[in-house]
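Submission checklist for the structure archive. All mandatory fields must be present; incomplete records are returned to the submitter.

[x] Identifier: Tyrosine--tRNA ligase
[x] Organism: Caedimonas varicaedens
[x] Residue count: 422
[x] Sequence attached
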Amino acid sequence: MFKPKSDFLRETIARGFFHQATDLESLDAQMSKNGVIAYLGFDATAKSLHVGNLVQIMRLRLLQRTGHKPIVLMGGGTTRVGDPSGKDEMRKVLSEEEITANLDSMEKIFARYLTFGQGATDALMVNNALWLNDLNYLDFLRDYGRHFSINRMMTFDSIRLRLEREQPLSFLEFNYMILQAYDFLELRKRYDVTLQLGGADQWGNIVSGVDLIRRVQRSESFGLTSPLITTASGAKMGKTAQGAVWLNELQLSTFDFWQFWRNTHDADVGKFLRMFTDLPLTEIAKLEELQGQELNEAKKILADEATRLCHGEEAVSEARKTSTTLFDAQHTGSLTEVSLPTLDIEREQVKAGISLVDLFRSTGLVPSNGEARRLIRGQGARLNDEPVTDENYKVTLREFEETTCLKLSAGRKRHALVKLRD
């Protein structure tokens, strides 16, 4: 059984981050002797990353904590193409303005997890548009296209699975593997990067980069992937009935972020503590032994630690306070002091009745009226903790006879208040 000497690989395996490596023993030998420069790429497909991306961010954080240098590669160039890995259809083509806005928003998230600067282990952020946007197509094909075998590319999951399912794969997407491999080569030339990190679905892209460096530079490089993370229920990590669990507080409140971790399935607590916190493994082992109601304390610790990394200490304190107040309010009937997203409405608006669908959308619990209707049909909508199944339900002054504040819930995790103005 392989026993790594380097701190990074030892913790990578112990925390559940390991899936595949191109040459694990050689990589371990290098990492145990010298600091290694490694990179991980993120395309700018949205204004925020989500919890599903957090595995990779935490791997970069671990890399830095164990004495190595992380490079965050932002896909200003590759976002224009679209990665077919793990996708059933072609990704939406974004404009340059959308890509730039997404990059600006995403950059702030990495600063919470990594230390950036010019030091030996300080992180760097690089945009692959720097070398991809001005490529000469004919020169690129001549110099690098000959190093890629179509036969081999067809065997990698990102290509093979799409074809086996008879789902369309555009030539644009087919190029993505070549561009990512070229990214690795450019980073090797510019920053002496020797390791690429990624998810299991990136294996084909990563191996192609390792091969390209070997063919062009005749030098050694490495690839290391993490497994696809699912919850105990089999769901993809970071996906809920209400949508993605965003890392940007503008798209998901810090309380909802805290509550996501607080509601972790019992069977996932240990795994998530290892992956999404910096807690020592010995302490996590003790928390895993807790049973019954005591396990709820471990869940709160998970929620605190994950929220502290992403949103800071103040967000943890506020989430704890909100959780306690909400629990008390549910038992006393007083909701006016709870720190949840709040929508103020005028008395005149309520006199004729105001659609519950509109309230769910206006509070931000759902992005559209259609989503609100689906939530109600799916029996996930509640008004003051009572289920509502009528899509045409209207809130009137009757609901405000004994209170000035109503609580809306989308499932068990997301809540908002509707407050009647005096």
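[x] Structure attached
Curator remark: The two ends are 70 Å apart (CA to CA). The chain has a mean pLDDT of 87.
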